Amino acid sequence: MAKILKIYPDNPQENLVNEVIKTLKNGGLIIYPSDTIYALGCNIFDIKAMEKLAQIKKVKLEKSKFSIICNDLSHLSDFTRPIDTSVFRFLKSHLPGPFTFILDANKSLPLAYKNHKTIGIRVPDHPIPQLIVEKLGHPIASTSIKDDDEIIEYSTDPELIAEKYDHLVDIVIDSGYGDNIASTIVDLTSGEPEIIRQGKGII
């Protein structure tokens, strides 16, 4: 059964955040809030956790397109090829924010991302995922939680999310109602921004 932790952005309790970190380090899966929608996350360096994430999303791990959640741009060089100054300035002007930026991947990606030519980078404008990544010491893999409802595409109620994913994840962070608009996906591999999916973020 998933453990529900009520962690609020204005005053995140350190002991609860530490419990989340311990779970991630032990290969557990979490559901966490962001500046857009609730999402599934795990340790990018734990291949078994990544495989579980892929199973939940019903995709093969090698074909998955899980975003990498960072707390700032300092991790970029760990996962991406060197980027132009103009692209870096563009990223800096839009992050933290509700965007997923597609960049050229380097050859030092974690095992689960092996052979990926591009990678999606997110820096959510939300203190909880930022704090998780900061305390964990490295980014986490992430994918959005979709709703079965035909009208509402994304789940917003953490209690309903916890009920649905009860036996699939280890922790659900309840941070109040989430948004139901996903991030805007922007491809920067050509050097010029190309919107792949219009979401919450406005370019």
From TrEMBL:
<feature type="domain" description="YrdC-like">
    <location>
        <begin position="14"/>
        <end position="201"/>
    </location>
</feature>
<protein>
    <submittedName>
        <fullName>L-threonylcarbamoyladenylate synthase</fullName>
        <ecNumber>2.7.7.87</ecNumber>
    </submittedName>
</protein>
<keyword id="KW-0808">Transferase</keyword>
<dbReference type="InterPro" id="IPR006070">
    <property type="entry name" value="Sua5-like_dom"/>
</dbReference>
<dbReference type="InterPro" id="IPR052532">
    <property type="entry name" value="SUA5_domain"/>
</dbReference>
<dbReference type="InterPro" id="IPR017945">
    <property type="entry name" value="DHBP_synth_RibB-like_a/b_dom"/>
</dbReference>
<keyword id="KW-0548">Nucleotidyltransferase</keyword>
<dbReference type="Pfam" id="PF01300">
    <property type="entry name" value="Sua5_yciO_yrdC"/>
</dbReference>
<dbReference type="GO" id="GO:0061710">
    <property type="term" value="F:L-threonylcarbamoyladenylate synthase"/>
</dbReference>
